[in-house]
Specification:
18 helices, alpha/beta, six-stranded parallel β-sheet, binds uridine-5'-diphosphate-xylopyranose, single chain, Rossmann fold, N-(1-d-carboxylethyl)-l-norvaline Dehydrogenase, domain 2
Length: 442
């Protein structure tokens, strides 16, 4: 099938590449000439496990191309995915200017039937706006070419996006007519062993599903973070509580890990956008207000522990930080709790040496010029002469360190762990003062 993907960012690139992998003829469009030049020369602008090899394979097979040419890309695909960014406006609502611009471009150049698929995370009602944008262009040309607008939200997790796309737990398709439904069914057939995994619904329900899923997950995390704070002062252990409630199948084990607050490009933005949509429609989502407040407080929980142990003035205190990305297996620094933690420490006179297995380059970019912050090329070197280690992201490589060596490199045997990587009793035995989240300190 001929497919065009508009927007070669995170979602667009993964979508286009994975569709090419199953034999579709895919053109990826982006208006950024530098990005397209990089892709055309075999580079990949983001880090995502498995993506680079898959792009290479499909480009070599002639099934995947990159272009900045709008007319060519519109002419190519019967199915046109819109996967452009929807950055938050100042009021938290999603800015749809790139989505409607993409729709207008399709309207400007299309000459036969197209299915336009909203893949970007867009508020309920966006499909109607896409429809209007297209129609207004088509009317100008006085043409009566038919088209369908479909909502097909993505549920990709960064760090596992290729895997999630290739083996989805569900595919949500909001569609209003049979022609488009049949085309989408054919496109996704290779990705699902049985069609039960494709959920067809009306367009607005599909649009809301995306926000509902992310808001529900964010709610679980904030709830666990608040419970962790309570467990800690009550002398309970949140890790035991987590297991105790997760074994109830109605609750389940996923997304119950307390930590330093959720970050990334989706949860913070989507929770705010959903609140905004609700407000605009006269509905109050009280739960989500609390979810957001709890999350922003959680980002400073580790700092508060540090201040209680080391005093308010951190002048002359040096910290090692392990983990900068908002979660493992990504170089994404958007809304990363590490940014807040480091900023708070520097503000109080401390110095920081940070290490991350993948996100260092991105971290240097977003934190460039921060006085008192340096980066280390390996985790051990970061520990040298530090008064304490702070763990912010749960990369696998941090799970089984040589504790003896860690102790000898640190000036003080202090570990503040925002991801509960170690057993408090073991840490005590190893001679550390250990500060986890939601459990008694070791
Ligand atoms: C999320 C959704 O999972 C995905 O379905 C959607 O398409 C995009 O948003 P992503 O942002 O890549 O994906 O990361 P995710 O793995 O969901 O983690 C989000 C944040 O929650 C991270 O900061 C992570 O550290 C935090 N988290 C996650 C917790 O603190 N505890 C948990 O138990 C799970």
């Amino acid at each position: 099938m001929k497919v065009t993907v508009i927007g070669s960012g995170y979602v667009g690139l993964v979508t286009g590449t994975c569709l090419a992998e199953y034999g579709n003829d895919v053109v990826c469009l982006d208006l950024d000439p530098e990005k397209i030049a990089l892709l055309q020369n075999g580079g990949v602008p983001i880090y995502e496990p498995g993506l680079e090899e898959m792009i290479k394979r499909n480009v070599e097979a002639g099934r995947l191309r990159f272009t900045t040419d709008v007319a060519e890309s519109v002419a190519h695909g019967t199915i046109q995915f819109i996967a452009v960014g929807t950055p938050p406006d100042e009021d938290g609502s999603a800015d749809l200017k790139y989505v409607t611009a993409a729709a207008r471009n399709i309207g400007k150049y299309m000459s036969d039937y197209k299915v336009i698929v909203d893949k970007s995370t867009v508020p309920v009602g966006t499909a109607d706006k896409v429809q209007q944008a297209l129609l207004s262009e088509l009317t100008l040309r006085d043409k009566h070419i038919s088209f369908s607008v479909v909502s097909n939200p993505e549920f990709l997790k960064e760090g596992a996006a290729v895997e999630d796309f290739m083996r989805p737990d569900r595919i949500v398709i909001g569609v209003a007519d049979e022609t488009a439904k049949d085309l989408m069914a054919t496109l996704y057939a290779p990705f699902v062993r049985n069609h039960d995994r494709i959920l067809y619904m009306d367009v607005r329900s599909a649009e809301l599903t995306k926000y509902a899923a992310n808001a529900m997950l964010a709610t679980r995390i904030s709830f666990m973070n608040e419970l962790a704070n309570l467990a800690e002062v009550m002398g309970a252990d949140i890790e035991e509580v987590r297991k105790g409630i997760g074994s109830d199948p109605r609750i389940g084990f996923h997304f119950l890990y307390p930590g330093v607050g959720y970050g990334g490009s989706c949860f913070p933005k989507d929770v705010q956008a959903l609140q905004r949509t609700a407000q605009e429609n006269g509905i109050e989502l009280r739960v989500l207000d609390a979810v957001e407040r709890a999350n922003s407080a959680q980002k400073t929980v580790l700092v508060n522990k540090i201040l209680r142990r080391m005093g308010e003035d951190l002048t002359g205190v040096h910290f090692a930080i392990w983990g900068l990305a908002f979660k493992p297996n990504t170089d994404d620094m958007r809304e990363a709790p590490s940014r807040v933690i480091i900023q708070e420490l520097l503000k109080r006179g401390a110095t920081v040496t940070a290490y991350d297995p993948v996100a260092m380059h991105e971290a240097e970019r977003v934190m460039s010029g921060w006085k008192g912050l340096t980066f280390s090329q390996n985790p051990k070197a970061a520990l040298e002469g530090a008064n304490a280690l702070i763990i912010v992201t749960e990369w696998k490589a941090f799970r089984s360190p040589d504790f003896g060596e860690m102790k000898s490199l640190l000036k003080q045997a202090l570990v503040f762990d925002g991801r509960n990587l170690y057993d408090p009793k073991r840490m005590q035995k190893e001679g550390f003062e250990y500060f986890p989240i939601g459990r008694e300190q070791g």
